[in-house]
Structures are given as C-alpha cells and as structure tokens.
Amino acid sequence: MEDVEVVSAELHRLADSEPLDPFDTNRVVERGRRGRRRRKLFGVGGAVAGVAAIAITASLLPNLSSAKPEPGVAEHKPQNPLFLPVPGVPFGEAGADQRITKAEATRRCSLRYPEEKRPLQGGDPGVRSGHLMMYDVKNGQKFAQCIVPGGDKPTAALAAAAAKDPLPVSSADKLRNCSVIAWIDLTDWQVVASDQSKTLGRAELVAISPSGHKVVDCGLSADEEFPGVAESSTSFATLTNLNGSDPVLDPSDRSVRTDMYVAGGGGGGCTNGICTTYGMTGWGRVKSKAATTIRIRIGSSPVYKVPVGQGGWFAFTWSTKAKYNIKDQPKVGAYDKAGKLVKKF
User: Which residues does residue 153 pair with via DSSP β-bridges, in sequence order?
Assistant: First the structure.
C-alpha cells in the first residue's frame, strides 16, 4: 500500500514539476489511408435482448494551450525510474508504434506472459508495438490477448497502483494505467482528449507524444470482454507516417489536419425491432477549424453535445436509454458556432 501511494505521489510531482509543452497537430499529418477499428457490441443497463447496429458519438476534454509550437524531436533522457528496461527494445516514445515482425512480437509477448505458449494470430507485415494481438484459440480454450510491449516494463509498485484504481479520475493516473497496459511510458505525454462514463464503466483518452509525432488512444475498463481478455487496450499511430491500418477517413486527403475517426459499440434491449439501450466509445479528429461542437442522437434520444477542442481532437464514451428502431444509425456531426453542419461522421 505504501508503494502504491509513493508511485501516485511521484506521478503527480512529475506532472507539476515538468509541465508539458503545448502542441499543435495542424502541422504533422502528411499522408494517411482509411482505417477502422470496431469494439464489441454491448448492452447498457441490463441484459441484452437484441442487438442494434454499430454507432458513433463524441465527448471531449480540451487540454491544450493557445500556443502553436512546431513538433520537435524526441528528447533524450534517462528512463523513468517507475519502469524497467525491456531487453532489445528502446524505452519511451521510441518504443511506441514500432513496425516489427511477428517473431519479435512473439518474443516481447513471451516476456510479458511467459506461461502463454500459443502462437499469436496474424502475421507480417502490420505488426506494431503498443497494439493488441490475440493468441490462437481452439475449442474449449480461454481467450487471451497481448498488447505488444514497448520498452518500459512497469515496476511492481506501478502495476499495483494501476490495479487498485482501474478507472481513475485524473489525467496523470489515466496515463499511468495506460503505460502499464502498453509497457510504454506515457507519463510525459500530453492529454488532448478524455471522457469517462459511469454507465459504461469505461474511460477513453487520447494523448500526444513529447515530440508531437505520435498519438495514442487508450481505453480503460475494469471489466473483461471475454474470460481472460480485458477490455482495456491501447492503439498508437505515427502522425508523420500514417498507413492503411490507421483511422484516416479519406485516403486521398494528404492535408496536415485530415479527419480521423474510430469508434465501436452497440445496443440492445430489443423487442419486436424496438431497442432501448445504446453505448459507444471512440476517438478522432475534426479537420474543419470552424467546428465547435459535436452533436449526436439516435431515435428519440436527446441531442448529445460536446465541444471540439483545439486541434480538433475528441474522445467519447456515450450511452442512452432512449428508444430507437433496430435499423436506426446514430446521427453524428460536427457543427460550427452558427449551428451549420461542417462534417458528418
């Protein structure tokens, strides 16, 4: 218990003593291709009697200053003492979103889960550190996954602090938990969007690396998607080297602020084609600088509004218990201050 308190105190000390530089995302994205990630369908507020279609929503916590510096080069500094080295893997930002072979991913995952002897699913190319991979599953076997480690193995005290508080309130503690999930030190990354839902029991966070070259989406949950498979996960992108697996909506748009979007979820409580619950989490970025608000609704639900922050980044954890037709899709859009639709998702 004392170790947990010491770790938490150290994280808050670092946050106070080493404030992060402001970041402007408008100058970093040079190219991109369309990508998409879907999360599991889940019911909200009770057992699922039916399943509704995939949908989208947004919620944002702006966390940027008004300054607009150029993205820099990753700073060279010693490894954070809250973490231990991972053999053969660079620590900090350098170990995030590395393009590696499946064999290297297998080696890293064996360091994390030495008891797991099954092969990982998937293959070269496309394997990246900080991303989720599943182990092969045969009939009767438990599901298992591995977030391919970076170069920062959390100390026992840090891991204990994260386990004690799986859905923390502060950004510093969220970054701590995301660091434990990814084995990548994110404690000095800048949070640009964050949202949390008590109803869903989930938190979503988007943060930018110290150099401004990389972004992480981290979903936190205390629940398990399947036995042995936690819902908490991370996904990274290198903003100066986006590819087909990244959530860029228009592959032909090579502007410095192209739209990015990814979400997953679903609904339930359906009887005779009428459903009563819907939940969705995700994140993204709005290209239009005129956008000030994200609005969403489905069926008879009230309009859900959240602000668009500097740089256009957003994260969301949305749910509703309003009635809707099973064929309905959520209506999601970005609007300017005059109420004009500037982007439909």
Answer: 84
Contact at 8 Å (CB) between 321 and 267? Answer: no
Identify which of 33-47, 97-111, 126-140, 277-291 has the greatest average pLDDT.
Answer: 97-111
Domain locations in the chain? 22-76+187-344
For the stretch 147-196, pLDDT in tens is 999 999 999 999 999 999 999 999 999 999 999 999 999 999 999 999 99
Q: Rounded to two decimals, what is the model's pTM? A: 0.76
As a whole number of angstroms, the distance between CA 141 and CA 124 comes to 25
Query: Radius of gyration over alpha carbons of the chain, in Å?
Result: 20
> Could you count the other beta carbons within 10 Å of the beta carbon of residue 128?
21
Cβ atoms 285, 57 nearer than 8 A: no
Three-state SS string over the chain comes to: CHHHHHHHHHHHHHHHHCCCCCCCHHHCCCCCCCCCCCCCCCCCCCCCCCCCCCCCCCECCCCCCCCCCCCCCCCCCCCCCCEEECCCCCCHHHHCCCEECHHHHHHHHHHHCCCCCCCECCCCCCEECCCEEEECCCCCCCCCEEECCCCEEECHHHHHHHHHCCCCCCHHHHHHHHHHHHCCCCCCCEEEEEEEECCCCEEEEEEECCCCCEEEEEEEECCEEECCEECCEEEEEECCCCCCCCCECCCCCCCCCCCEEEEEEEEECCECCEECEEEEEEEEECCCCCCCEEEEECCCCCCEEEECCHHHEEEEEEEECCCEECCCCCEEEEECCCCCEEEEC
Residue written as token pair 């030495």: 114
Question: Residue 9, Cβ neighbours under 10 Å: how many?
Answer: 10
Write the CA distances from 168 to 13, 104, 155, 201, 339, integer angstroms.
Answer: 17, 32, 19, 11, 34
CA-to-CA distance for 308 and 186, rounded, in angstroms?
Answer: 24
Residue 200 and residue 279 in contact, taking contact as beta carbons nearer than 8 Å: yes
